[in-house]
Specification:
Elements: E1 3-5, E2 9-12, H1 16-27, E3 32-36, H2 42-47, H3 49-66, H4 83-107, E4 111-114, E5 116-121, E6 124-129, E7 132-137, E8 140-143, H5 154-164, E9 172-174, E10 179-180, E11 183-184, H6 196-200, E12 208-210
Bound molecules: flavin-adenine dinucleotide.
Flavin-adenine dinucleotide (FAD) is lined by residues 12-18, 35-38, 42-44, 48-49, 52, 116-117, 144-146, 160-161, 164, 185-187, 189.
Length: 217
């Protein structure tokens, strides 16, 4: 017999659209359930804005060190990038923020159900969780399911998500700003130790930036 929940508010999606709504509803004392297939934080926190800004920050620091000669600062030899360590640091930033959002949801007494939701009508869905299906019927439903990249930008966006995603270590990264099927990502973010300023400059063509990495053991 699947577990059945009957909250007043069901929020679908644990990205910035969903978790903010769920936290606020919870703070107002409304019985709220949030359903998220992955980790709370969504695209922005887990594989979008936050990880890309972390990598851009690391790329800027690298570029600063590489270019410091003009300021009269010389370091002994060329700076090296341990990309695995950079990715581990970026993952740590993402973990801290995702755990922070989980803490805020718990504090607001929002129940988080992890799994993919399939709706059978406007107010009822079944969530496939690790422990089995959970049926949810809510008085009010907030859809905050994000958007999917479509069209020509799709492959480039997927590559970019892979690059900024957990544990990803790529030799090259391509970034593209593109309209999603329902909405779209809001910009282009790529990190390159060799051309970090180019990665942020507006351009009609998607920038392809190379990232040369030396792994120290
Ligand atoms: C590389 C990259 C960089 C970005 N940089 C920026 C930036 O600098 N500034 C900015 O403003 N925006 C940026 N964005 C865009 C930003 O990430 C999105 O605008 C934002 O995440 C949208 O929030 P959302 O809550 O609507 O959707 P999302 O964050 O996509 O969250 C939706 C969530 O719903 C879940 N979900 C969907 N369907 C189901 C289902 N059926 N069952 C269970 N769960 C489901 C998904 O798993 C997902 O976690 C960037 C995006 C990318 C890809």
């Amino acid at each position: 017999m699947p577990e059945t929940l009957r909250p007043r508010v069901l929020v679908l999606g644990g990205g910035p659209g969903g978790y903010v709504a769920a936290i606020r509803a919870g703070q107002l004392g409304v019985d709220t359930v949030l359903v998220e297939a992955g980790r709370v934080g969504g695209t922005c926190l887990i594989r979008g804005c936050i990880p890309s800004k972390a990598l851009i920050h690391a790329a800027d620091r690298f570029a600063d060190m590489a270019g410091s000669k003009t300021l009269g600062i010389t370091i002994d030899g060329a700076p090296l990038l341990d990309l695995a360590q950079t990715i581990a640091w970026k993952d740590g930033v993402v973990d801290r923020l995702s755990n922070g959002v989980s803490g805020l949801l718990a504090h607001a007494k929002v129940r988080v159900v992890q799994g993919w939701a399939t709706f059978s009508d406007a107010k009822s869905c079944t969530v496939e969780t690790e422990a089995g299906p959970v049926q949810i019927t809510a008085e009010h439903v907030i859809l905050a399911a994000g958007s999917e990249a479509g069209g020509a930008a799709c492959a480039a966006v997927r590559r970019q998500r892979h690059f900024v995603g957990r544990g990803a270590v790529a030799g090259r990264a391509a970034g593209a700003a593109g309209g999603g099927r329902r909405g779209g990502i809001s910009g282009s973010n790529s990190a390159s130790p060799s051309r970090s300023s180019a990665a942020r400059s507006p351009s009609s063509r998607p920038p392809t930036v190379s990232c040369r990495a030396t792994t120290r053991r």
